[in-house]
Design goal:
Blueprint lengths: L6 E5 L5 H11 L3 H13 L2 E7 L2 E13 L2 E11 L8 H15 L4 E7 L3 H9 L3 E3 L1 H7 L2 H10 L6 E7 L2
């Protein structure tokens, strides 16, 4: 039987930067994503890290925005060191992100990923996020609201949008 990991999720500290950056460059196939992630460490509203045995093994970067008089959360980036993936670390980070936004009164948490990023798509679906088609959102909102929402989700045409209602 596999040993259960003791995962600790806490707020990011500046001294985590070097290790978080190293993990980003290992976790992303696209060097641009790794650069954006490294930038986000000091510019995102909230950054959480996951530790195993006091070693940083994963990161989630979070943003929030107001939309239709409700606070919404957004997972800007989430990444786990490849040697630690598929062991519950990403799910622990997402649970803590959900808790963070619920405490602040957010009703929804959004995430986006590339259409061809099947591993991350499966991850969000496993964590009860619903895939929302842009055309579905366009029907629901005015053109101006729709564009505002997509802008806050850093959406581009090759992305998939995920949404979870926080309860």
């Amino acid at each position: 039987m596999a040993k259960s990991l003791k995962i600790k999720v806490r707020s990011y500290r500046e001294e985590d930067r070097e290790e978080a950056s190293r993990i980003a460059y290992r976790a992303f196939n696209n060097i641009l994503d790794a650069k954006w992630v490294t930038w986000g460490l000091s510019s995102c509203e909230k950054v959480l890290v996951a530790e195993v045995d006091e070693k940083v093994v994963g990161v989630v970067e979070l943003e929030s925005f107001w939309f239709k008089d409700k606070l919404h959360g957004y997972i800007y980036y989430i990444f786990v060191d490849p040697i630690w993936q598929r062991q519950g670390i990403g799910s622990a980070l997402v649970r803590e992100a959900e808790f963070y936004f619920k405490k602040r009164g957010a009703k929804y948490l959004w995430a986006t990923t590339g259409k061809s990023n099947f591993k991350v798509r499966k991850f969000f679906e496993k964590n009860n996020y619903k895939n929302v088609e842009p055309k579905e959102l366009r029907k629901r909102y005015s053109r101006r609201e729709f564009k505002y929402l997509l802008w806050h989700l850093y959406y581009w045409s090759e992305d998939v949008i995920y949404l979870k209602k926080l309860e």
